[in-house]
């Protein structure tokens, strides 16, 4: 699965995550790290949706942002 929304939509989704979920982004990144070791993007999105009840758009934005930040640490 790939990211299917614009950078602006991605930023807007991320900005709303704390108010919609009650958790800050770093908490979601920690949950992804502590969760199952899924390699595929869509498996991680599905896990957030199923395990934590997130909407698809928010789960996708969280996983995408976590991947961007991981890549920045590795290659930045």
Overall structural domain count: 1
The whole-angstrom Rg is: 12 Å
Main beta sheet strand tally, sense and closure: none
Class by SSE composition: mainly alpha
What's the end-to-end separation, in Å?
24 Å
InterPro entries: DUF4287 (IPR025629)
Pfam family, one: DUF4287
Protein name: DUF4287 domain-containing protein
Organism: Jiangella aurantiaca
Summarize this structure as a short list of keywords or feature phrases.
76 residues
Summarize the structure.
By secondary structure, the protein is mainly α. The chain is built from 4 helices and no strands.
Textual characterization of the structure:
The chain has helices at 7-21, 25-34, 41-52, 56-75. It has one domain (4-14, 24-75). It starts with 6 loop residues before the first helix and ends with a helix. The protein has 76 residues and is mainly α. Helices cover 75% and strands 0% of the residues. This is DUF4287 domain-containing protein. It holds the Pfam family DUF4287. InterPro entries: DUF4287. It comes from Jiangella aurantiaca.
